[in-house]
Every structure is written in C-alpha cells, then in structure tokens.
What we know:
The complex is a heterodimer. Chain A is an alpha+beta fold. Chain A is about 35% helix and about 30% strand. Chain A has a three-stranded antiparallel beta sheet. Chain A has a two-stranded antiparallel ribbon with strand order 2-3. In chain A, a hairpin with a 2-residue loop joins strand 2 and strand 3. The two termini of chain A are about 30 Å apart. Among the domains of chain B are: about 1-110; about 110-200 and about 210-225, no CATH class; about 235-240 and about 270-310, no CATH class. Chain B is about 75% helix and about 0% strand. Chain B contains 19 helices and no strands. In chain B, helix 3 runs antiparallel to helix 4 (about 85-100), helix 6 crosses helix 9 and helix 7 packs across helix 8. The longest helix of chain B is centred in the N-terminal third of the chain and has 30 residues, at about 1-30. Chain B starts with a helix and ends with a helix. At the A-B interface, helix 2 and helix 3 of A face helix 18 and helix 19 of B.
Amino acid sequence: MRYMMLIHHDEAALANAPQKQLWADYAAFNEALAKAGEGMAAGERLQPPSAATTIRVADGRTDILDGPYADTKEQLAGYFMIDVAGIDEAIAWARRCASSRYGSIEIRPLAETYPRPDLRLRTGDD
Amino acid sequence: MDVRSNEAARAAEHIARESYGRLVAFLAARTRDVAGAEDAVAEAFATALRTWPVDGVPGNPDAWLLTVARRRQTDALRRRSTRKASEEHLMMMADEIEAAASAPGDIPDRRLALMFACAHPAIERGMRAPLILQTVLGLSAIDIAAAFLVPAPTMGQRLVRAKTRIRDAGIPFRIPENDELPERLDAVLDAVYAAYGKGWGEVEGDGTSALADEAIWLGRLVVSLLPDAPEAEGLLALMLYTESRRSARRSPDGAYVPLEEQDTALWDDRLIDLAEAQLQRASRTGPSGRYQIEAAIQSAHVARRRYGVHTWPAILALYNHLQRLTRSPVVALNRAMALAEIEGPEAALTAIAPLADDRRMAEYQPYWAARGHLMATAGRESEARQALTVALGLSTDNAVRQYLQRRLAVLHTD
C-alpha cells in the first residue's frame, strides 16, 4: 500500500533539539528510505508556517489569509512517501523518522480510486 | 472500612493474577466463548470489589468468584438459548459448570488448553501473543496495543475478531496429541517469546519491564503445566538469561551497550542461576530445539564474558546447528558475528554476502548494524560508514541510535 507520511512539527520542540544530531538522524533516515527500494521517497521540507498564505473562495469572494490553515501547536512541515505491505510497516517507518520525536507523523493511505497513470497510457495506445 | 477495603483490594489483586486466567479458561473451555467468559469473570471481580470490603474476603475466593461468574454466564447462555433453540444442550453445559463450582478449591486448570486455542494455526500469527496476554493474564487492549505499536481501537477490534473466530471456527480447547504436540507447542512458545520481545526494549524507571515479566510468568506457567517439554524449559531459560542482563544493556546516559561491552557486574546472578538450572533440566531429555540451542548460546556467552572461557567455537557450532534447523537469515547474521571472532571479519562478510540479495534485509536494522561492525573491524571505513548510516536510519530505539551515532563519530575522526 502507498502512504503519504505527513510530518507535523512542534516548532518550539524542534528549535530546542540538538540540531547536528537531528539532521544527522534525518540524513541517515533518508539513506535508509532510499535503500528500502521502489516507491519509497524522501519528500520535501516546507518553510515554516509563518511563510504560509491561505486562500478560500466563498460566494465569489476571495479570502486571503496571512498564515497557515489552522493555527495549532503542531504544523505541517513536510512529507515523505512509502510503499509497504500495510499499516504495521508504515508505523515502523514513522517511528524511524526523527520528526516523530519532535512532533507527529500522520499516516495517510493514498486513495487508489483513479486509474494509475500507466494504465491510462495503455488505454490511450489502443 | 478503609483498612478493610484496602485488604479486600489487595486480596482481589493477589487472586486476580493467579485466578483470572484460570477462571476464564475454565468457563471458556466448555462454551468456546472466550469473550463471554471474560465478561463473566470481569463482572465477578467487580462484584468482589463491591462486596468483599463490606462482607469480608470469603474463605475460598476462587470458588466464590467462579460461582458469581458462572451465574452470570448461565444467564447469558439462557438468553441466547431461547433464540437458538438449543436450550437443552446449553443447560447441560451450565449444569456441568455448576457442578465444578460446587467442589471448592478444585477448579481444573485449563489455562494450557486456552493457550493452545489462542495459538491455534487458524488464528493469525501476529494475534496469538496479544490474545494470550488478554485471556490468560487479563491485560487490557490499551496496554497490549501500546506494546504492539498499533492504535488501541485497532487492537481491540483484532482481539474481538480473533475471539469470534475461536468460537465460530470451532477451535478446540485441548492439549494436542503427541504427534501434533511439538508443532503446536512451538506456536504457543513463539507467542510467549513474541510477548517477551515486545518487552525487551522497554526499560522502566526501576530497570524492569512489565511485559517481559508477564512473558516470563507465562513461560513458567507452561513449564509447570506441561511436564517433560524441554523446548518450553529452553524458552524459559532463554528469557531468564536475557532478563539477567537488562540493567547492563544501557549506559548511565541511556545508550545501548552491546554484549561485548557490558559490565558483567551488573548482570543478575540470581536470574543467571535460575537460567542455568532451567537449561540443564531442559537438556536432560529429548532432542534440542530452537529455544534450547539459543539458551545454550546464552550460557556460552555467560561463561565467556564472566569466566574468560574461550567459548566462541562452541557458540559457532550451536549457530551452525540452529541455522540448519531454522534456515533463518537472522540466525545466519548471528552466526557470522561468531565466525568473525574465530576467522576474522572478512570471512564473516563473505558468509553474509548472500544476504545482500534478500529483499527483507533492506529494512532489517540488525543486518546493517552487523555489516557496519564487520566492515569497521576489517578496516573498510567508507563501507562501514555507509552501513552504519543505514542502520542508524532504520533504528527506532533511542538507545540504539545513540550508540550508532557514537560509532559513526569515531569513524569520522579516524
């Protein structure tokens, strides 16, 4: 199953973390992720929530908000992707990620309702 | 009142550990309805906590609990029987239970049969240990979920499903016949060892682990209820050896300490003595199985680290035997570490080379840690660094992570 692993950081906890060790752990984690094979991908890191802009359109009016979607202690900070047998393996990967110690990791299975791109290409060739 | 209620609570707690599984096993053995038996026993304990402080602790608490639990179970059976039109049959079972309850102090111990039902091949392997922990020891789904790293509601659902399966699939509550016994016993022992494994990494404030204690208690229970089962004795010995090193496994600042660097003065002599005695009893009869061999390896490590006896050749021979028996890549890895002590790291690296093609190794932390260790010993620094980095990335345990960070730091400065 494919999962998107959503990293939420508590910025204060992260700022107090031993930085050198944290990023060494992260580099090691990405290395292990890469070694684990196809479908496993180090994701992207996001800029802090202070850099966020939130847009909402209601009744034809555009609402532009300076800041993140919800102002909570833990904020979305990045993601990575895994392709594993099931939730137990996904939990193991979440525990390996340094961010699980400075916030939380939300494990979201990808919805597989749409045909995968490769399937669509094949029908196009026919 | 306060003294009395404390006394009652203590009595209930003391009885709970011994009696809970005994009562559940006895009530479930006839109906195969584990969940119903658990409900009945839980209700009996709740009633005890209500009435004992007022009326005093009964002379035979076990029989008292069984009587209350049986009454509740009989009611439940009657309610169901009107729907199922099998009243006669169910009433007969209820009578049988009642008869047993009226002979106080002599409740047949069916806990082993219950464990065989929980570890039946028709029950999903991963659920066998949780099921035993809940039905025999009365652990809550929340505690089990925490140890097995799944969300509590998920564990709760899985436990309910497994119990329904025991009832609906007709899984028997019995100790298997001789020809069937070894394989079925292995499943029970594997479940107990899985529970121990979950408690291995835990180190609480007082240097103990609740789950490891429970697993050892279960190991003792199997040994006491099933005489002449050398593998059960072997497993108990193995757990006791491992447990004896618990306080030596962490440095004062919490980092993992490998066996070679452990301060043997921190090993628990009492547990080692128990383990040695248990292993000796195990090996007096019968063929050697997996757990006896693993316990023997631990015994050889004790002799080596404690008394300076050169037992590496014996350890390698035991691993050779174990590898033929299990064909497990994990054993191959451990065997290679012993080989390195005798023939050097390059021989060990050659021995584990085929493992590199095993897809499972990509995510297996001990493989990368062992590989890194061997590469470092062989002086192949950049390969050691790479393997130890992957091992660090795969670690979920802070203590292990700390240890690997230090090993990497040493490599970097060289």
